[in-house]
Amino acid sequence: MGKNYADLHDPNAEYTMRELSAETMGVTAKRGGGRDVEITDVQTTMVDGNFPWTLVRIYTDAGVVGTGEAYWGAGVPELIERMKPFVIGENPLDIDRLYEHLVQKMSGEGSVEGVTVTAISGIEVALHDLAGKILDIPAYQLLGGKYRDKVRVYCDCHTEEEADPEACADEAERVVDELGYDALKFDLDVPSGHEKDRANRHLRPGEIRHKAEIVEKVTERVKDKADVAFDCHWTFSGGSAKRLAAELEDYDVWWLEDPVPPENLDVQEEVTKSTLTPITVGENRYRVTELRRLIENQAVDIVAPDMPKVGGMRETQKIADVANQYYVPVAMHNVSSPVATMASAHVGTAIPNSLAVEYHSYELGWWEDLVEETVIEDGYIEIPEKPGLGVTLDMDTVEEHMVDGETLFDEA
Ligand SMILES: O=C(O)C(=O)C[C@H](O)[C@H](O)CO
């Protein structure tokens, strides 16, 4: 018999004083225009992409189905399964209340940050698709409307010779000229051969010179054709990060991402304030509460929430609102399938301070095949006018790439 985590006993979830269900809140008034809809089921299927994408579907008694996606990670499907009883019977149009309801119900299990927030995010994205379909409007309309018809996409680039500055520059040129992107990102936390110890976070002078050489070669090669960001994946000490960022001030760096670990806000703030190189942080922080502190302390020049991880579409919009008050742009981190990528683009059009949305799957070959529609064209996502997110899962592709042991979604 398989494991069943869904029925695990959680007293916090079973009884909470702050109970936000429709029944307890007395949300019973009849709604016109086909809006009296009830959620009947929630299902997940994990697809083995370049990350294990968790796709989510919410079914209703009206026969309308919403599709969403949570950021990848073990435990996400189990957590969604555990939350299912809290949304069944609810009206999917009450997105905000249902989000708060899940956060409250899952408090004991950890809904301040981490994988529980990721699981809630997947449900929240599916609710936006569903609500858009019920109301017959695109999801961005639920967020207040459009700032732009197309959202810019940046391509996360890789090469097998990731430590070779010329190879990185060649790849940058190829991605710009052949794939049509005008915004790129490369990893800068690549071993240079000058390391004495990979654990201590300290950058030796030769390592800094090597990183500066990658940045110089790449930015010079695509100068005036593309913006280029560089990612450090939470690797270096504050002192080393400051020296690296100072060295990179001579080049056209779009941003330097996550040079220090995300936990210590004081160090983060000091690094950001020490340099003219724009510093971007965000993908490992959760919900507006955590991102707010980063922004309010002016510890970040550009904020990078991962929408289907940070809390979903409305939570990302709330983060963008706080960022906007500090004149901070938003570059959405994204390693998702076309479903959450399109959902991020809907957020991107609904906020004034959208810089770009990441695309992290150009080497996969079948990323676009997961949905019937074209998602990225010439480095931009055109926001669809179809109801909901405007993407339709191609079930043959889902089935072909499902993680072993997964079952395909039920028909609508
Ligand atoms: O694209 C980025 O910015 C990343 O940091 C990709 C990471 O490898 C990924 O998010 C880690 O899970």
What can you see in these coordinates?
One of its GO terms (biological process) is amino acid catabolic process. It comes from Haloferax volcanii (strain ATCC 29605 / DSM 3757 / JCM 8879 / NBRC 14742 / NCIMB 2012 / VKM B-1768 / DS2) (Halobacterium volcanii). InterPro entries: DgoD-like (IPR034593), Enolase-like_C_sf (IPR036849), Enolase-like_N (IPR029017), Enolase_C-like (IPR029065), Mandel_Rmase/mucon_lact_enz_CS (IPR018110), Mandelate_racemase_C (IPR013342), Mandelate_racemase_N_dom (IPR013341), Xylonate_dehydratase_2 (IPR034624). This protein is α/β, with parallel strands linked by helices and 412 residues long. It has two domains: 128 residues, 2-Layer Sandwich (Enolase-like, domain 1); 235 residues, Alpha-Beta Barrel (TIM Barrel). Helices cover 37% and strands 15% of the residues. The strands form two sheets. Strands 4, 5, 6, 7, 8, 9, 10, 11, 12 and 13 form a ten-stranded mixed sheet that branches. It has a three-stranded antiparallel sheet with strand order 1-2-3. Helix 13 packs parallel to helix 14. It is globular. The two termini are 28 Å apart. The structure holds 2-keto-3-deoxygluconate.
